[in-house]
Amino acid sequence: MGSDVFEISVNFVKMVAIFLLMVNLVPMLVWVERRGSAFIQNRFGPNRVGPLGLIQLAADAIKFLFKEEFIPPKGNKALFLIAPIIALIPGAIAFGSIPLSVPIEISAFEMFGSQWGPYVFPFQSFEIGIGIVFVLGVSSLGAYSMLLAGFGSANKYSLYGALRASAQMISYELAMGLAIVGILIVYGTFDFAEMIAAQQGPLSIPLFEADHVVNKILGILPNWGVFYQPVGFILLFVSVFAETNRLPFDLPEAESELVAGYHTEYGGIKMNMFYIGEYGHMMVASALIAVFYFGGYSLGTTLDTILVEGTIVPNMSALFASLLNLFGSGWEQSTNLINVVRAFVFHGIFMAKILLFLWIFVWVRWTLPRFRYDQLMDLGWKTMLPWALANTIITAFLMLFLR
Amino acid sequence: MTSLTPIIVLTVFVAIFGVGIVVVSALLGPKRNWTKAKKIPYESGLPGQERKETKIPVKFYLTAILFIVFDIEVVFMYPWALTYTEFIDAGLGGYIFGAMAVFVGLFIFGLIWEIKSKALEWD
Amino acid sequence: MSELDILFYILSSMSVLFGALVVLTSSPIYSSLYLVMSMLSVAGIFMTLNAPFIAGIQIIVYAGAVLVLFVMVLMLFDLKRETKAFTKGRFSGFLKLVGAGLLCGFIAGAAYESVSLIMATSEEIPTNIAAAAETGFSPTTNSIKEISKLLFTKYLFAFEVLGLLLLVVPIGAVALSRVAGGTHAKH
């Protein structure tokens, strides 16, 4: 985790901060969902508690903490209590391995009388060389929380809902894995940071020269993955709806059929933890889509050069430095400060993309009706899997001729 | 570089966080008595319809087995996709495409057979 | 004691402990859950051995697919009666002792043989690996690419045969679970 005290402590604080970012984004998302769904359904959402109803979720969370703890007497107490905790872990670990911004490079500086050497802090909880494979593996561990929840409540509707939910989840993991194979063929690396670096620059077709008219027209668009793999984008997008049990694939939670599926017998904060896990999984999925298909934290060539080399970031850091001059002196020449501000600007871009996709999740939920379970499984096995295979084969075939 | 310590530290932290929330909620919640209605499993308020034997269909088992097989095949495609462009650059593009095409062909054959034999019918 | 040593001790003791608990627990669901923890510990050990891809695949395939199948099937069975962990009986006890003794003998023999083998070939570590280890190379993507290049050139036939073997599994599964009239016949 680092070689000296400063690095270890910064890494630990960064890890905790990213996890808390994920956890704190969940009330925001629930607020967006409730207000957004109200807006779509032509009614008001929560708007009493606090301005625009923003404190509603904090009030709800505090209310849930004070609820009575209920454990079904015939159920398995250990599994019943462990299941919501297991629901949190895959989302947190997967979110920690996605780079949220450029790495922060701190050159050597002096503090408290001793020299602290040059560091590079990657803007993620931990670095993994096998980014995608790890995220997929950890996401597939999310099936256990559903199964244990369904089994631990001594309710056959819970059990049936849990089995259906996990069967649905594993069916769509195949389509997800195959859509990712398409991306791997195009970029040739597992690492997220390398993929984002490969998406810089303008779009171009390698068969034509650089100043051919086709390339000039296409050069307006950034070199994002969605232009290389549109079918893969659609497949991944639909698969993550099914993975996270979101409408239109949320029959395991359907009210009319199974009461509330695998979390029927849960109440209070334990039920909320399932939702934190589900929204966390949604955030990981949005981050993955942004990294693979939409350039991650970079915005394509022109905006990147403005931000990196040009006018905006040194001005922002100059503003910061002048603010900090109130407390000390000599902050203007600090390249460390420029690096930190730049990392946070890129992080803001990435979060904007993630929030856009999360809004699309909410929007689709309140727009489309729900699939029946057999339609859902048929879609997963008989439609998405063949399309994903076709996508892989066609991508491989095209790569043979474009090289 | 990959290192395992941050992953373990993060997992332990998240687990402690979760356990902490559950414990805090258990301590803060009111303790009420057990009524008769609380003890039976929740079935939307209908009187309990527990049968002795609940037969759960075998489709779940088949879905899980097919998932394992196809997951292994997808996992074999990952190293293929990783070095695909290197093989093309070395002039072996057709060969590597053909090698995987045979593998995927077996995969597709299995999928078509299994769809035709109605192993994935859900009603 | 470097960081890798501490990690190795923790992870290997976890995997042995959970492996023992798999056998000693009397409830089947707990057994499979302990097996999940054991698989995750083994994946951690792979990661400390600089094989993160194998660790990832272990998590995807073993912990994420095979053991999900186990847990799902055990929940389908709805076992009400939990069997005892230790059974009594003189003949079965004798067989258990013989089996355990054979296993310990095999492990001890294998360890003894491999110690002499490791000592004998320590001078013959290929020079490029030794030199690369000194410069601190990052073997993550390189080793995955090396594995895949080997897989598709030298071991191509094994790869294709593996595809054929994987084809046999769903056919066998469907044949085993075939009920007269299809999987959703009334019975």
Description:
Chain A has 403 residues and is mainly alpha-helical. Chain A has helices at 5-40, 56-65, 77-96, 131-140, 143-152, 156-187, 192-198, 213-218, 230-243, 255-258, 269-293, 301-308, 312-324, 335-365, 373-402, and strands at 104-106, 109-111, 114-116, 119-121. Chain A has one domain (5-402). In chain A, the strands form two sheets. In chain A, strands 1-4 form a two-stranded antiparallel sheet. Chain A has a two-stranded antiparallel sheet with strand order 2-3. In chain A, α3 runs antiparallel to α4 (131-140), α6 (156-187) packs antiparallel against α9 and α6 runs parallel beside α15. Chain A is globular, with a radius of gyration of 23 Å. Chain B is flat. Chain B has a domain at 59-116. With 123 residues, chain B is an all-alpha fold. Chain B starts with a helix and ends in a 7-residue tail after the last helix. The mean pLDDT of chain B is 81. Chain B has helices at residues 5-28, 36-39, 59-82, 84-89, 93-116. Chain C has two domains: 1-85, NADH-ubiquinone/plastoquinone oxidoreductase chain 6, subunit NuoJ (Four Helix Bundle (Hemerythrin (Met), subunit A)), CATH 1.20.120.1200; 137-187, no CATH class. Chain C contains seven helices and no strands. Residues 136-141 of chain C have low confidence and may be disordered. Chains in contact: A-B, A-C, B-C.
SSE topology string of chain B: HHHHH
State the separation between the terminal residues of chain A, measured CA to CA: 41 Å
Write down the overall geometry of chain A: globular
Round the Cα radius of gyration of chain A to an integer and report it. 23 Å
- What is the overall shape of chain B? flat
Biggest sheet architecture of chain B: none
The average pLDDT value of chain B, as a whole number, equals 81
Uncertain spans of chain B: none
Number of helices of chain A: 15
Tell me the fraction of residues in β-strands of chain A, as a range: under 5%
The share of residues in extended strands of chain B comes to under 5%
Find the count of extended strands of chain B (DSSP E, 2+ residues): 0
Count interface residues per chain for the largest interface: A-B, 77 and 69 residues
Low-confidence stretches of chain A: none
- State the end-to-end CA separation of chain B: 49 Å
Tally of strands of chain A: 4
For the CA atoms, what is the radius of gyration of chain B?
26 Å
Structural class of chain B: mainly alpha
Rounded average pLDDT of chain A:
83
Helical content of chain A (DSSP H or I, runs of 4+):
55-70%
- Strand/helix succession of chain A: HHHEEEEHHHHHHHHHHHH
